[in-house]
Amino acid sequence: MGIYTKVAEQFGNLIGKADYVAAHALLTKKAQAVHSPDDFKESVEGMTTYAPGPIRQVEVMEDFILEEWPDKQDGDIAIVYISLAGDRFNEAVTVTLTHEAGDIRIRHLEWGRP
């Protein structure tokens, strides 16, 4: 697992703790303009409506990390799949990591089930 996946893991852990403001800070400037911390809260609530409850386990799925893909943009590093599990649900968020101003940030994210 590359060092860049620490950003993905940090993002997942912050989402799991419902610290949406800190998770939002890990996005690129463009992604921050598109997504708000409240959007994260709504996405988590939407994914877990069938089994409400807290996220208890966050895991970067090492077998689902892409370092090469057809739509890869300049500066992109990897697409990382993050499992978000609770007592009665298993959901996920997929993030695209990129370089921005010397840091690794999340350029794109997609919420959804595994």
Return the average pLDDT rounded to an integer.
Answer: 93
Strand content: 35-45%
Rg, please?
Answer: 13 Å
Largest beta sheet: what is the strand line-up?
1-2-3-4
Please give the number of β-strands. 4
From the N-terminal CA to the C-terminal CA, the straight-line distance is 20 Å
User: What is the molecular shape?
Assistant: globular
Quickly give the structural class: alpha+beta
Assembly context of the chains: single chain
Low-confidence stretches: none
SSE pattern, N- to C-terminal:
HHHHEEEE
Helix content: 25-40%
Largest sheet: 4 strands, antiparallel
The tally of helices reads 4
Describe the structure.
The protein is of the alpha+beta class and 114 residues long. It has four helices and four strands. The protein starts with a helix and ends with a strand.
What key attributes describe this structure?
114 residues, alpha+beta, single chain
Task: Describe what is shown at a glance.
The protein is of the alpha+beta class and 114 residues long. Helix content is 30%, strand content 36%.
SSE arrangement:
Layout: H1 5-16, H2 20-24, H3 29-34, H4 37-47, E1 57-66, E2 76-85, E3 90-100, E4 103-112
Antiparallel strand pairs: 1-2, 2-3, 3-4
